[in-house]
């Protein structure tokens, strides 16, 4: 995969690197194309070819992760009838950052369009401070698939839930009305995180909204809702409807591998929806 366009940032403040990006997708005939892809360092955009009708974009950052003071922002538009996938080239690693790092996504999805947000998990190292914000505006008839996973960090190295601060805000609106508006806060000052999170090393959310994923919502609501409650299970899941056309799935797992496999199983309908298998191609 090669960067479509990479524009060096003109400003690198003493507090870190400021990287912004602008993406726009539109439908041309039976396929979706990337109309605009502009990025400032350290953020990069990569556009791999695929065999389906959707357009795929992967994000990447120079240096392999976020360092102290980094602030990344991405604005994204999906035009009417288009189908877009936004993923990442690898895990979102956040290194020790006393002053903190930030990442912001703002997306607009037009009528009849589908946006799939399926990045790799976020991994915060010891001493990391990270704030993430995602804001998605849906037009009538628009659809959204969103996967958001966070892991305990480098557990094998003894860095288990050892970061200093993690906050993740997710807002999804349709015609100005909130479908979802929440914030996860993992703050050690409220109590030691390893003790509070117990045996779990990974947490995740999968959100399905709109007509394009109606069948998948019905299937997953029944499947996850019927799972038995087992003491000391390595995976705990829940499914909750949001209004008439949205479903949120939650999971806590004892390992990042179990969580990622579960989330991908839930999203096994994506290859048919996109026209190509993003998991197989990445493998």
Summarize, please:
The chain is mainly beta and 283 residues long. The chain has five helices and 17 strands. Helices cover 13% and strands 45% of the residues.
List keywords for this structure.
13% helix, disordered N terminus, ten-stranded mixed beta sheet, 283 residues
Structure description:
It is a single chain. The chain is mostly beta strands. It has one domain (18-282). Helix content is 13%, strand content 45%. It contains 5 helices and 17 strands. It has helices at 193-197, 214-225, 256-266, 270-274, 278-282; strands spanning 18-28, 31-39, 43-46, 55-61, 71-78, 83-88, 92-94, 101-109, 114-117, 122-124, 129-138, 143-151, 165-174, 177-186, 202-209, 235-241, 246-253. Strands 3, 4, 6, 7, 9, 10, 12, 15, 16 and 17 form a 10-stranded mixed sheet that branches. A 7-stranded mixed sheet has the order 2-1-5-8-11-13-14, with no helix packed on it. Strand 3 and strand 4 (55-61) form a beta hairpin.
Q: Work out the strand percent.
A: 35-45%
Written as H for each helix and E for each strand, in order along the chain, the element string is EEEEEEEEEEEEEEHEHEEHHH
**Rg for CA atoms:** 18 Å
Number-wise, the strands total: 17
The amount of helix comes to 10-25%
Mean pLDDT: 91
Our measurement of the CA-to-CA distance between the termini, rounded to an integer number of angstroms, reads 14 Å
The backbone outline, from C-alpha atoms, is globular
What number of structural domains do the residues give?
A: 1
The biggest beta sheet reads:
10 strands, mixed
Count of individual helical segments: 5
Would you identify the regions where 5 or more consecutive residues have pLDDT less than 50? 1-14
Helix/strand structural class: mainly beta
